[in-house]
Structures are given as structure tokens and as C-alpha cells.
Amino acid sequence: MKTKSRFGTKEKVLVIILAVLVTVIVFTSIFLVRGTRRYNWARQEAEELARQYGKITTVDQFYYFNREEQYFAVLGETAQGKSVYALIPEDGKEITILPAGEGISENQALTVVQEAHPELTSLKVGLGKKNEDVVWEVSGKKGDTWTYILLSFNDGTVLSTIENI
Q1: CA dist list (Å): 35 to 23, 30, 44, 57, 92
Q2: I want to staple 63 with a disulfide (CB 3.0 to 4.6 A). Which of 73, 146, 150, 161 is the partner?
């Protein structure tokens, strides 16, 4: 004797689609959480070191720089109201503290790049060191490719440009 299912073909297809969607959502969530965990940890560590060594009491901005060496940078204010950058290498040694007024700001770096490369979109900024020089790295998209521009922190001079990556 043949038993008939309570569910028709449409209901079975709907259940399968729903199960696939739930699985995709769960795995996407896990991927996103794992992907941002390192960034959030790095930011927290950088802010802690900036408070300790740079005497920063208020954190305004966090930057991530990844070239030959990886740097984390924090812009903040001291208790005396002075804006300073704390540049922290990945290993946490030799932290550099710079008064913000000694160089160009993030907005000034963006302006230099936007004037030279108005076609770039999705601009991202990092602060770090290259060959012991403090640099701003501005990256942006042009179509399907990326452009990376290094600028001197001191005066905004373009040090290098890498295009079509």
C-alpha cells in the first residue's frame, strides 16, 4: 500500500529553498564575524598602546597600513588637548608618537589624491612607515582595478603610485 505525503511538491521545494537560505545566512555570518575579529582586536590593542605610550585620552581615528610591514595608527588627543598620531608596528615595538601638526592630515592627503586622480572612487586611507618615512597610503578604485598612492606625511609629496592592481 502506497502512503501519500501530507506535503505537495511546492511545499517540499519551498522547504528545500528555505533550508539552503538559512545555511547560506549562517555560513555568511560566521565568515563575517571571523573576518572582522582580527581587525577589531588590532584596533583595540592599538588604542590601548596609544593611550599608554602616546598619552592619548580620546581616540578619534584608527588606521591600518599593510605594506612590507604592517602598522596600526591611532589619531587622538592628549589630556592637554594636543592632537597626536601613534604609529604602532605589528610587533608592538618602537611606537612612534607624532604631533598631528607636524604633517598633513588625512583630509589633506585625500585632497592631493582627488586632485591628481579624480577618477578614483572608494578611497581608503592608511598611515604607516615605509623605509622609516611616515607615509599616508591612499587607495582607490578605477573600474575593476585599484590604485595605491603613497604620500609623505611631512609635506604631502607623492612618493609612489601603483596602478592597475
Answers
A1: 18, 8, 15, 28, 22
A2: 73
